[in-house]
Amino acid sequence: MNYEKKFSQVAKTAKASIIRELLKVASEPGMISFGGGVPDPETFPREELGEIAAKIVKEEYKITLQYGPSEGDNELKNAYIKLLKKHEGIEGVSPENMLVTVGSQQALQLIGLTLLDEDSYCAVGKPVYLGAVSAFKQMFPKFLEIPLEDDGMNVDILEEKLDELVNRGEIDKFKFVYVVPTFQNPAGVTMPLQKRKKLINLAHKYDFLIVEDNPYGSLRFEGEPVPSIYSLEPERTILLNTFSKILCPGLRIGIIIASADLLRKFTIIKQGVDLCTPSLTQRLAARYLQTHDRIEELKPTLELYKSKKDTMLDALEKEFGDIEGVSWTRPEGGLFIWLTFPEWVDTIEMFEEAKKNKVLYVPGEAFYVNEIEKNHMRLSFCLPSHEEIKEGIRRLKKVAENYMNTKSLGS
Asked: Is the pTM value of this prediction over 0.85?
């Protein structure tokens, strides 16, 4: 049977995530992967979670093994509210301002389903987290791609594009700006306070929402924390957080924090998607947070990640420092470094050779919507060992040199 003619427009336009595809080959013997932003499993509190899991299944089975409310478990919400207040200085959040989702990916999908239509506009970074684009694309909106600078989204260009919408009489169709302001994925850069305030001013001037995705905010290794956009302007900000990077991704827990009016609509949409987030994983996370200060306990993990980041930066300097036109970001936290080659380099073309040399990365073109740039790659330093990082960068240099030499000879 020809199933193609039965597919919806969403199915026809959907593309496989290159990161998901990478994970299939990342486990091959001898492969060194700088691909997915996969936390080091040795950092997961598996003993404590195992003890709590056994206890809540036996003693709280009427909750943990049953359907739960679509809004999420209040035990988890209240525990997370305390964490937000203590470690992020965010106050005034109540359970009515929170929706527990199946990871941040579902949160992004719910935002797209709730706010976007085919005639809608939204603004994203250039480059941008590919999971957000995949979620938003299902509603077929028009994307405004805003270039990234060393300190995050260029808000002056954003303002120019918004003025163009005003002049065309389409500003009412502009719904939101999506940003990862702290340790952006894929570039690793952070938006300073002044630029965050400028973005908020634009939100008031042009009447739009800010979707602040903050999966990496707790993974700061150095430098001073910057207040979240939500803490500065809660009425216009939808804050997304996840337990995947601070606890473990297998729980598949994300949280949307927003005004109660917005949350109610997100909840209604979620009911049509999956009814509720699993009760078992929510209560497991709740009981863990009630008895452990997870942010304090992250300190050894952050020291580990910082040392791996420094190892990668040192290796990049050693291997690529004398190659003209090659540069990279130097993040103060998060999981990623953004490596840029001269404009004529295509990291997709280079990718097959990299696989043969047993080193993986995410080609940069995966992080663009319309105006594709092919001369970048995203490198994640959190999972490989120090020796694997050094060896992987050596292999990457060999691959890049062979590619660039072959291209030069052919031109």
From this structure: yes
User: How many CB atoms sit inside 10 A of residue 395's CB?
Assistant: 18
User: Which H helix or E strand runs over 122?
Assistant: strand 121-126
Look at residue 21 in the predicted model and tell me its pLDDT: 66
202/353 Cα distance (integer angstroms): 45
Nearest to 393 by CA among 311, 301, 329: 311
What whole-number distance in Å separates Cα of residue 61 and Cα of residue 279? Answer: 10
Q: Which of 189, 201, 199 is nearest to 151 (CA)?
A: 189
CA triple 356-14-380, angle to 5 deg: 40
Q: Which residues pair with 142 in a beta bridge?
A: 121
Query: Which residue carries 């040192």 as its tokens?
Result: 314
Quote the CA–CA distance of 305 and 45 in Å, as a whole number: 16
Cα distances from 333 to residues 1, 309, 380, in angstroms, run 50, 9, 12
Cβ atoms of 384 and 33 within 8 Å: the answer is yes
On whether the CB atoms of residues 229 and 210 are closer than 8 A, the answer is yes
CATH number of the domain at 7, please: 3.90.1150.10
Domain boundary among 295, 321, 340: 295
Number of structural domains in the chain: 2
Judging by beta carbons within 10 Å of its beta carbon (0-12, 13-18, 19+), is residue 191 exposed, middle or buried? Answer: buried
Which among 199, 215, 192, 191 is positioned nearest to 131, based on CA atoms?
215
Q: Which residue has the tokens 């938006």?
A: 191
Query: How far apart (Å, rounded) are the C-alpha atoms in residues 312 and 308?
Result: 6
User: Residues 177, 322: one domain?
Assistant: no
Q: Which residues of 109-125 are buried (b: 16+ CB within 10 A; e: fewer)?
A: bbbbbbbbeeebbbbbb
Structure-token pair, residue 324: 């003209």
pLDDT digits (tens, 9 = 90+) for 23-63: 677 778 899 999 877 788 888 999 999 999 999 999 999 99
* Parent domain of 252: 46-295
- Phi and psi at 360, nearest 5°, equal -120, 145
